[in-house]
Write a structure and sequence with these properties.
The longest helix is centred in the C-terminal third of the chain and has 18 residues. The protein has one domain. The strands form two sheets. Strands 1-2-5 form a three-stranded antiparallel beta sheet, with helices on both faces. Strands 3-4 form a two-stranded antiparallel ribbon. It is globular, with a radius of gyration of 18 Å. It contains ten helices and five strands. It is mainly alpha-helical. A hairpin with a 6-residue loop joins strand 1 and strand 2. It is 52% helix and 7% strand.
Length: 232
């Protein structure tokens, strides 16, 4: 496996990657700037402050592979979920479901609005989300080749300054992208597998991520189907 070349051609696959990354920027980058004026740079790219390339990599990885790669021990996973849910401050200004996939099949369940929604019965809410996560982990998704092709499209779209929100261009420097992708390529060559990354210090400081990843079909067929219906 390797990070190959792609043709920047506006294909459906390329548009899917573009849309997935723009969704991330809308939710987790743009709100951290003082206003649109400091983002409107006359077409010149603005380097993200709340993301590194690793954070976009992580969202793309989740969208391609789903949740299975992070559940080694269901008991530990369940205990960590209960802890994180009880520590999450209930809020109403975040979406409960956040699409991180290229095809609308993988979502983050954000724990802060989730706790607000089910604050009258948090034990049941935790049990239901745990089951949704464990059931999602049984669904085999993605491949290394598909993911590396997705990563190559991220690289090319970033180079082409294709991540635009309300006229605001967000892009990492070529140097930052090249250095990051070289590390990924070295890992792939050494282990013949794609690495699993954590969120960056910058992302944690600005966004305080608190979520779990689930498969959409699992949500539709469990006691949390109401979340899908509410989200539409």
């Amino acid at each position: 496996m390797e990070i190959g070349e792609t043709k920047h051609d506006g294909s459906r696959a390329e548009r899917d990657v573009q849309e997935a990354i723009i969704r991330q920027y809308i939710l987790h980058e743009v709100p951290h700037h003082t206003g649109h004026d400091d983002l409107k740079t006359g077409g010149s790219p603005l380097v993200p402050i709340a993301h590194t390339p690793a954070d976009i990599y992580k969202s793309l990885h989740q969208g391609v592979f789903g949740v299975g790669h992070i559940i080694d021990d269901p008991s530990v996973f369940g205990n960590n979920l209960a802890r994180d849910l009880l520590q999450a401050e209930p809020v109403a200004d975040e979406p409960i479901l956040e699409d991180v996939s290229l095809d609308g099949t993988v979502f983050r369940v954000n724990l802060r609005p989730y706790r607000l929604r089910f604050r009258d019965d948090e034990n049941t809410a935790c049990a239901r989300l745990l089951k949704a996560c464990l059931d999602s982990a049984e669904i085999v998704k993605g491949s290394g080749e598909h993911f590396l092709a997705t990563l190559a499209r991220f690289r090319d779209l970033n180079k082409a300054r294709s991540f635009v929100v309300d006229g605001m261009v967000l892009a990492f420097s070529s140097e930052a992208m090249d250095a990051f992708l070289m590390e990924v390529a070295d890992f792939v060559q050494r282990y013949n597998a794609v690495p699993i990354l954590s969120h960056s210090t910058e992302y944690k400081r600005y966004n305080s991520p608190s979520y779990r990843v689930v498969d959409l079909e699992t949500l539709k067929n469990c006691d949390l189907a109401c979340l899908v219906q509410t989200t539409g």
